Every structure is written in structure tokens, then in C-alpha cells.
Amino acid sequence: MSQGFGGKVLPTKINLIRLKRSLAFAKRVKKILEDKREVILHELEKLTDEISEESKKVWDQLFEAYDSMYSAYMSMGPLNINSLAITTPQRLGVEIKEENLMGVKVSRLKLTNLESTPQYGFLDSSSALDKAIKKFQETLPLLISSAEKENAIYRLAEELRKTQRQVNALKYVIIPNYEKMIYNIMNSIEEREREEFVRLKKIKAVLERKSKYGGKS
After folding, report:
1. Domain total of the chain
2. Within 10 Å of residue 9's Cβ, how many Cβ atoms?
3. Which of 2, 77, 94, 123 shows its CA 20 to 30 Å from the CA of 200?
4. Is residue 215 assigned to a domain?
């Protein structure tokens, strides 16, 4: 008898049919998982490229922002800059929603209440400070987008590892086990059929001899 996943499997034609169906199903699942793996890899590559482009923009804008901020410090003085920073209320919010991407829940972030203009008196300001604030505001959506993509990459990478483990289990354990059981059962059935054929031939020969001798008597 063949050894199965849950114990011994009797070498019968019914079990052979069931195992062949299970094997076919396992191969279909393996193909689906392999396709899923390829799609995830493609999505990871796409997200990685997008983050790389966004990172370059972020650093370029931050460089301009800090350069303008330095000019503002030089023209207005640290005390005025700090006073404006303390008295300026927080007007930034982030909405978080979850979406399904390749069967994986990923967070979608959206900036809310982002002021487009500085909230302070014109006379207290300088063009350098206005430019710095504008550049920081332009950088925020890119930072949020990068954080969103990094989170998606992390979760997709986890799903990729899980999918690869499933593919490996099917490819190296489950499918070979089914194939081995099918092979053993087919051999057992063929051997049993050969034995039955030989037995029937012997019975036929005995009957023929009896018939032959009985006819002479």
C-alpha cells in the first residue's frame, strides 16, 4: 500500500482517480501562485523605481528649502524665525485608508488641511522664508507618497516570501508525493492484473484439460 499525506492509501482504481485529480489541482494551484509571484515581482520593481525617482525629487527640493531657510535666518534672525514657527498653528492632517493590492492590504495616505500660503504678517516675512515654506509644502506630498510605497513594498515582500514558500511546498513536496503515490498504485494495480491474468490462464488450462480428458472417457 502507498503512503499518503494522511496515512496509507489503498491501491485501488478509485484512489488512483482521486489522486490524479488532486495532482491536477495541485499543478493548477502552483501555476496560479507562480503567476501571482511574477505579478508581485513586477509590482515591486515598479514601486522601487517610483521611490527612486521620488527620492531624487525630495532631496532636490529639501536642498532648496534648507538653502532658502538659511537665507531667511541670515536676513531675519533666528529669534524672528523661531517666533513665527511657535505662533504658526498646525494645519496638516493625513487620512489613512486601506486598499487591496494583489490580495495584500496596503495603506493609502492623503494629505488634508495643507495650507498653500504662509499664515503670518507680510512685514514679518522675507522672500527666502516664503520660498522655504513653499518648497517644504511641495516636498510633503512626495514624502507621504514615498512612505506609502515603502509600506506597500514591505507588505508585498512579505506576501512574495509566503507565495514562494507555497510554490516550493507544491513543487518539491506535495506534487512529487502525489506523483509517487500514483506511480506506486499504478504499479500495484498492474502487478495485480498480471497475477490475475496468470491465474485465469491456469484456471483455463485446468478446465481445458478436464474437458479434454472427460471427453475421452
Report:
1. 1
2. 19
3. 2
4. no
Cα separation, 209 vs 213, whole angstroms: 6
Greatest Cα pair distance in the chain: 138
Q: Strand, helix or coil at 3?
A: strand
CATH code of residue 177: 1.10.287.3240
126 phi-psi bin (left φ>0, alpha ψ -120 to 50, beta other) = beta
Write out pLDDT tens, residues 10-46. Answer: 888 899 999 999 999 999 999 999 999 999 999 999 9
Residue range 141-189, pLDDT digits in tens: 888 888 889 989 999 999 999 999 999 999 999 999 999 999 999 998 8
Q: Which residues, including other chains, have CB under 8 Å from residue 195's CB and lie 6 or more apart?
A: none
Q: Collapse the DSSP code of 182 into the 3-class scheme (helix H, G, I; strand E, B; otherwise coil) and give the result.
A: helix
